[in-house]
User: What shape does this take?
Amino acid sequence: MSWHASVLTLFPEMFPGPLGQSLAGRALRDGRWSIDSLDIRSFATDRHRTVDDTPFGGGAGMVMRPDVLDAALAAALAAGPASDRAAPDGAAREPAAPAPRPAVYLTPRGRRLDQAMVRDFAAGPGLVLLCGRYEGIDERVIEARGLAEVSIGDYVLSGGEPAALVLLDACVRLLPGVMGAAESGIEESFSDGLLEYPHYTRPADWQGRAVPPVLLSGHHAEVARWRQAEAERITRERRPDLWAQHVANAGRDRAPSA
Ligand code: ADE
Assistant: This one.
């Protein structure tokens, strides 16, 4: 069973969207991952296919109904890998059954997505992603379904769909066999907690700007030293938070283990 994403959305035609192209698109066609999108509206039960209502307590905006969202989540979990389904009463789970897929609600108030979280999601069986409208969803469905709340950054999108695409892209590129050697190198460099060093290609002189001579020297060790120093400089200058983390980790790695 390959890594499987189910997306619950009012705009199912947005998926796979850009993920049908390029690296993720090729991996999708190769069966390294799969995706289905479910239209939340199809789980509404009334004549008008209502998915939201006015907030209790008053105020602006609409809130998505917990009963409709719960029915959509139940359908997504039932359609996923067998392990997403609860084992029948009294029946022992197959010992080799993979863990059920985490159900994630994309929201600006969620935990900020980072590469460590992406690695965890990519290492699992897949994801069930709930895209709400910005005003929000009824709190009780978050509690009842144990939804993990994830944000892709401190800004507000008009809906969770672009955030779901971002999260999926970040996961899919880490799946086995998706990245070639070139892209894997970039992942390795990020995994040491540093930003990328600068890259150059031909022409060696462009508009009076020369490529740093060390890169033309043919000295592999010196090139590696220069790249490391540049990655450290750029991280220190642009992201003091990442730099502090990197320094703390390096200290820990050097600490005696006994
Ligand atoms: N929905 C709206 N804004 C979002 C954000 N920043 N991250 C995740 N989901 C969102």
Residues 106-108, 134, 151-153, 155-157, 160, 163 surround adenine (CB under 6 Å). The mean pLDDT is 92. The first strand starts at residue 3 and ends at 9.
